[in-house]
Q: What sequence folds into this?
């Protein structure tokens, strides 16, 4: 393997200094991969319009083919941050317009490419904001293979296509999780509930290993719905977690939440509780159940 700086103007950016990551990784057989620290790109999924694809400019690697906005990661940058930055630079994807769903990684040890699949929550029109795009279009999933695709994207598309319709959600029985740890929760139920919410907010933002959810890919970012009951309902909301406050029985509220969530297209519902009776009720609804210490060890 060797690192080769690009020739002047290839590939190029319209503004600013070149980042140390902007270089070719060249294998012993001469195959070139762009990005000293790996690369990442965004596959934005709009349920109404399809996926956002980019036709690459002629001077770029595999110029003229269609793929996703992406490029070399910066030193110390996470793949998710890199994918979002590149999509903003190349396609004008607005801040906050998409929600991460999962990542898929192509890794050859000396180089890797991470695809961030994200769901559009605020519709937007892409814009060609640098010289690396010939065109940007929303393409229905059924029409993707009609295009001349970048070889890497073509290889990954079948797995991405099937996985991008899945919508995992984790429903948390906060009372049960809270009660599983003898940390004095009975003295301050709202405070203890807040700690549980915070731990699952970390799960929502940091993601869950695909193996934990029995899904393809590398890391998933499921929606988290936490159910509070009794005195714990006084706990404040936490960013990244949908909080449901039961008007009566917490178990009944969880069953209602699972029933509602299971009706969403592509839903895969996971319930965190060690309560046997509740597990039986949600198992009957098709949910996957886990013990109170799953993911957080709380």
A:
């Amino acid at each position: 393997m060797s690192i080769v700086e690009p020739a002047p103007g290839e590939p190029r950016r319209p503004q600013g200094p070149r980042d140390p990551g902007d270089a070719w990784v060249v294998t012993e057989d001469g195959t070139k991969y762009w990005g000293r620290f790996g690369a990442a790109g965004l596959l934005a999924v709009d349920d109404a319009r399809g996926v956002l694809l980019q036709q690459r400019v002629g001077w770029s690697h595999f110029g003229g083919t269609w793929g996703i906005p992406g490029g070399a990661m910066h030193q110390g940058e996470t793949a998710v941050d890199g994918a979002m930055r590149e999509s903003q630079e190349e396609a004008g994807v607005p801040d906050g317009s998409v929600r991460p769903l999962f990542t898929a990684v192509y890794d050859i040890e000396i180089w890797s490419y991470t695809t961030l699949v994200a769901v559009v929550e605020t519709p937007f029109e892409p814009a060609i904001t640098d010289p690396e795009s010939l065109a940007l279009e929303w393409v229905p999933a059924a029409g993707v293979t009609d295009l001349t695709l970048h070889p890497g994207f073509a290889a990954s598309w079948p797995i991405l296509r099937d996985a991008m319709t899945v919508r995992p959600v984790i429903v948390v029985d906060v009372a049960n999780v809270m009660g599983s740890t003898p940390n004095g929760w009975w003295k301050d139920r709202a405070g203890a509930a807040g700690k549980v919410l915070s731990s699952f907010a970390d799960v929502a933002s940091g993601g869950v290993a695909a193996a934990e959810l029995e899904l393809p890919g590398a890391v998933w970012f499921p929606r988290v719905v936490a159910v509070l009951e009794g005195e714990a309902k006084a706990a404040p909301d936490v960013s990244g977690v949908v909080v449901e406050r039961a008007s009566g029985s917490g178990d009944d509220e969880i069953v209602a939440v699972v029933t509602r969530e299971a009706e969403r297209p592509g839903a895969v519902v996971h319930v965190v509780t060690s309560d046997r009776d509740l597990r039986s009720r949600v198992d009957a609804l098709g949910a996957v159940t886990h013990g109170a210490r799953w993911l957080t060890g709380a």
